[in-house]
Amino acid sequence: MQNNLTAAIIIPARYGSTRFPGKVLKMLNGKTVLEWCYQAAVRSQAGPVLIATDDPRIQKAAAQFNAPSVLTSSLCPSGTDRVYEAAKSRPEDVIINLQGDELFVEPDTVQKILSALRRDPEAAIATAAAPLLDAGKINSPHTVKVVLSAQGRALYFSRSPIPHASKTTPGPVYLEHIGIYAFRKTSLEQFVRLPVGRLEALEGLEQLRALENGLPIQVVTVGSAPVNINVPEDLEHAARRLKEQHA
Questions:
Q1: Could you tell me the maximum CA-CA distance found in the chain, to the nearest angstrom?
Q2: pLDDT score of 165
Q3: Burial, 53: exposed, middle or buried (Cβ in 10 Å; 0-12, 13-18, 19+)?
Q4: Which end of the chain has the lower number of beta carbons within 10 A, N or C?
Q5: Domains of the chain (ranges plus CATH)?
Q6: Secondary structure string (H, E, C) spanning 73-127
Q7: Please, which pLDDT band fits residue 90 given cuts at 50, 70 and 90?
């Protein structure tokens, strides 16, 4: 147990999202998606929270709700590279990469991911998953699935339905990956220096780079996956969820 490990949360926020440009600045119930995400990160109390972006518009928006931010290179090939650029000068032992559209993440989920790294010195990265029962999401490439070892290590992540269910079994078959990662700082540096892997390129999932290169990913299982925003249609669902939470 490494209870003395310190942590910081870095939110990579890019304006030019491929599927939904500018989504972090879209308004939801009077606040931007980014502000909701930042507030969720702060509530986790895992450590200081920083927004890393390549766009002055996002940095200006962050300043309006008093969130610290850093302007990174526009050439970062991924969100994790952006997180690393912002993390290089930080003193913390663990860097938590929280995607800018994870506005409904539970504080307890962030703490569980951090605790997984503290408990397991052999894990390079920790993340989370939740049981997946919705048939539409099981077959959707926008929902990433993960399969685990008996010890909770990630064996594979895919946009396809995995594992293939050849027969009916009791209990949930599928796990939905939740896009939050806690990296040991040394593992984060190792990760960004690795070349893009073949499986990573095929699936469009950068976490496969870690698995292809033998970096162990420990996965904690939580009750349910938070709603996130991948396409414009998700905004309406998110707005309804926020109204329910703040009714």
A1: 53
A2: 81
A3: buried
A4: C
A5: 7-245 (3.90.550.10)
A6: CCCCCCHHHHHHHHHCCCCCCEEEEECCCCCCCCHHHHHHHHHHHHHCCCCCEEE
A7: very high
